[in-house]
Amino acid sequence: MGGGMKNVVYTSERVDVVHGRWIYHDDDMMPWVSCSVCDVCTDSMNKTPYCPFCGAKMDRERRDDNGKNA
Ligand SMILES: [Zn+2]
């Protein structure tokens, strides 16, 4: 679209950021998580704010699947 020369201030959060979240899997021995965007599995201890593989920003964990209405 090539607009004019605007002084765009880039913040740490890019506009084109992909949002995803960690999907929990309960295995017998150790729980693990997988990225909802790229499906890469990782140890549940490695949950990071961003997917280290595809760079998706992980939304905060939802609490509605644990201790509902405690
Ligand atoms: Zn990913």
Summarize, please.
The chain has 70 residues and is mainly beta.
Write a structural description.
The chain is an all-beta fold and 70 residues long. The chain has a domain at 19-64. It has no helices and 5 strands. The chain has strands spanning 19-20, 22-25, 32-35, 41-43, 57-58. The chain is elongated. The structure holds zinc ion. The site of zinc ion has 9 residues, from loops.
Q: Roughly what fraction of the amino acids lie in strands?
A: 15-25%
| Biggest sheet overview | 3 strands, antiparallel
Give the proportion of residues in helices: under 10%
- Tell how many strands the DSSP assignment holds: 5
What sequence of helices (H) and strands (E) makes up the elements?
EEEEE
Arithmetic mean of pLDDT = 77
CA radius of gyration: 17 Å
Q: How would you describe the shape?
A: elongated
Strand order of the largest sheet: 2-3-4
Keywords:
binds zinc ion; 5 strands; 70 residues; two-stranded parallel sheet; mainly beta
Task: Give a topology summary.
Blueprint: E1 19-20, E2 22-25, E3 32-35, E4 41-43, E5 57-58
Parallel strand pairs: 1-5
Antiparallel strand pairs: 2-3, 3-4
Bound molecules: zinc ion.
Zinc ion binds next to loops.
